[in-house]
Structure formats: C-alpha cells, structure tokens
Amino acid sequence: MKTPLPTLTAIAVSATFLVSGLSSAQSITPSEKKRVDQMIGELHQKLHGGSAKNNLRAVSTLRAILKSPKATYQYYMDSIKELQFDAVGKRESDWRDWRERNEDRLKSTEHIAALHYQVKFLLLTLAVALEKDETTGVQKVMPELIEYYDDLTRDFDRLEGQSRVLTASALASVFAERLKLPLSLPPLQTWMGSPLPVSAVYDGVILPHFRKEKNHSALQAAWGKRIIHESKTLALATGGGALGLPAGLPAGIPSDLARRFGFDTGDRNRDQRREDTRQRKVSQEDFTKERLPTLLWGKNRDALIFGSNQASGFNALGRIIRENLAHAEAPNWLAELKTLAAGSAKAEADDKTPDEE
After folding, report:
1. Looking at the DSSP assignment, which residues form a beta bridge with residue 269?
2. pLDDT grade for 31, boundaries at 50, 70 and 90
3. H or E element in which residue 293 lies
4. Taking a C-beta distance cutoff of 8 angstroms, is the pair 245, 286 a contact?
5. Strand runs (DSSP E) across 105-172, as ranges?
6. Sign of the CA dihedral 290, 342, 350, 314?
7. Fewer CB near the last or first residue (10 Å), C or N of the chain?
8. What pairing do the DSSP bridges indicate for beta strands 235-237 and 279-281?
9. Is residue 220 helix, strand or coil?
C-alpha cells in the first residue's frame, strides 16, 4: 500500500527538524553526563541484575548439592516432582506411583555418581558464562576441566551405563531447569553442552584453547590427556568421519599459522561448520588399531605446526602413515602431509632475503 503524499511530506519535515536539532545541540555538561551514566547503570541493573543474582544463587545451590549423595538425590527428586508433576497439574498419587516404580534405579550409586558429574559440569559451565567473555572463562576453568576428565574417566567403569545422563546437555537437566539457568545465562559459542563424548570437548574447547595461546608444551600435554581419556571411555565422536578427526582446519589454529601451512581457512573451517557428533562404543583392540593412530596424527600435526623442529614433525607424520598403510585415513593423511609440506616450503621461500636467494 502506498503512503499518501501529505504523510511523506510530514515525515520529511520532521526528519529535517530532528537532524537540525541534533546538529545544533550543545554537548552535555559533566553533571548531566553523570546523571545519564547513572540512568544507564540503573537500566542495566533492572535488565540484568535479576539474572546475575539468580546465577550466583545457582552456584551456591549446586555446590550444596555436591556435599553428599543424599543431598544430590533429594534435590534431583524434588526437581522432578516440581517440574514434571506439580507444574503440570498432576496428582500427588501420580507422583507417588512414579517414585515407587523408579526409586531403586534412580537411587543407585551409579546414577547418583552420574548426577554428580552432571552437576560438576554445570558448575564449570556457569564459571565460563559468568566471566566477562567466554575466552577468559575457558582459560579460568581449564585446569579444573582437565581434572574433571581425570576423575570422570577414572570412574567410567561404573558410569558406563549412565551415558544418557552424561551425554545430555547440562543446561537441559532438571537441575538447570529448576534453577532457571537457560533463561539467565548468556549464550556460549564454543563451550560444549555435555561432558561426553570426550572427543567433542577436546576438539571444541580444550585443544583450541592451547592452539590460540600457541603453547606447544601445554598443547602436547593436552593431547596426551586426550589419548588417555578416550582410551578409558572408548567412546568416539564420529561426526566428522568414520574414525577420524574432523576434516579441515583444526579448531583454534591462528590465521597466520593456518596460512603458513596451507590450510583452507574459509570453506573448511571446522569452527564454522562443526557437525553434530554421536557416540559409539568400540573395543580396546579397535581403539588401538583405528582410533589411536588418528589421535597420534593430530598430536604430531600440532607438534609440527606449533613446535620448533619441523623436520622432526614431518618425520613423525611420515612414520604414522608408514606404520598404518591399511588405515582408512591413510590417503587423507598423505594428502594433508603434502599440503603441510607445500605450505612450509612456500613460507620458507617467502622468508628468504634477496641475498639468500
């Protein structure tokens, strides 16, 4: 529908006066500026203050939940009753019937242990979200996060049957829902939603953190931890390929190093095109034969890119291919080795001075 001409004229005249008024307006005085800042602060508090208080209360509550298995179980059951029975108008008898049918299973030491790990991961999530930015949050919790996986994998024999709890999003848990965390937490871009699969957290959070810091020794130590943690869980994240690491640029490699080694930083950027992951169980033999060479490839590729001895890095990658010629990823490794070598040779030529040539 067309706007009538008189209306258009009125809009134009109003806009002219508005621009004219703004252009002729004087700067506000210091005292006026102080009042404006105070007003903005009050508005910010009204908009975000409630969320901040809620998140701090949640931290206190979650820490209390972890004090004993009894406290964990009681809060979990109270949350189920409140959210899934009382809030939807179900009868008290419905709750009692459901509790009697499920109490033995939910009260098992294995289930409560899994809930403990879910709550601990939720606390780590909160710690990241409450920092001024996600990168700072990840840096702050990194030691605790790796220690978390040390503990989780050490307990995994008794937790294996609780994978449903440990692969579910922590922010979708009854703990988070009762504490209203999905409403009050700011969105996180790279932090993973659940503690399992282990490989997804290493690919998405841990390894990118150390790559961005260009911390060679810490990055290699993290790869060592990853190999141990995956071998204990024997659970693979296979979104990017059958048994391989995600295709393309490893997450967190700085752009200068990506260009130097010939990685395609556009179409194949894994940070921008992360695929959904799924979990599957493999035998120890499968892990040693199929998964371990893939992890060693990733570890030595990072050693080549971030370490100081490129010749040693190339030799290590070549040795992995020679020792695993029948591996499904061997052709891809060889193609990547060629890319790395070509990028390194080009960078060396670009760095030469005219006299050296």
Report:
1. 249
2. confident
3. helix 292-306
4. no
5. none
6. positive
7. N
8. antiparallel
9. helix
Among 66, 62, 178, which residue's Cα sits nearest to residue 116? 66
Cβ neighbors of 205 (< 8 A, separation 6 or more) are 138, 145, 190, 191, 192
Lowest-pLDDT choice from 34-43, 52-61, 82-91, 135-144: 34-43
Q: Which amino acid is at 215?
A: N
To the nearest 10°, report the CA torsion of 126, 127, 130, 132.
-140
Cβ atoms of 171 and 125 within 8 Å: the answer is yes
- Domain range annotation of the chain: 47-133+163-186, 197-351
Please give the single-letter amino acid code of residue 218: A
Report the 10 Å Cβ neighbour count for 306. 21
320 contacts 296 by C-beta, under 8 angstroms: yes
Q: Is the separation of the CB atoms in 222 and 298 below 8 Å?
A: no
| Entry pTM | 0.76
Are residues 262 and 343 in contact, defined by beta-carbon separation less than 8 angstroms?
A: yes
CA distances to 208, 219, 301, 302, 327 from 223, rounded to whole Å, are 11, 6, 11, 9, 21
Burial grade of 163 (CB within 10 A; 0-12, 13-18, 19 or more): middle
Q: How far is CA 282 from CA 87, 223, 235, 242, 333, in A?
A: 41, 20, 7, 12, 22
- The pLDDT of residue 9: 45
Residue 208 near residue 190 (C-beta atoms within 8 A): yes
The values of phi and psi at residue 39, to 5°, are -60, -45
Query: What's 160's DSSP letter?
Result: G
- The angle formed by the CA atoms of residues 15, 18 and 24, to the nearest 5 degrees, is 140
Task: Answer for the pair 85, 94: CB distance below 8 angstroms, yes or no.
Answer: yes
CA atoms lying within 13 Å on the CB side of residue 125 = 31
* Mean residue pLDDT across the chain: 82
Report the amino acid identity of residue 152.
Answer: L
What is the average pLDDT across 144-159?
A: 94
Q: What phi-psi label fits residue 294: left (phi over 0), alpha (psi between -120 and 50 degrees) or beta?
A: alpha
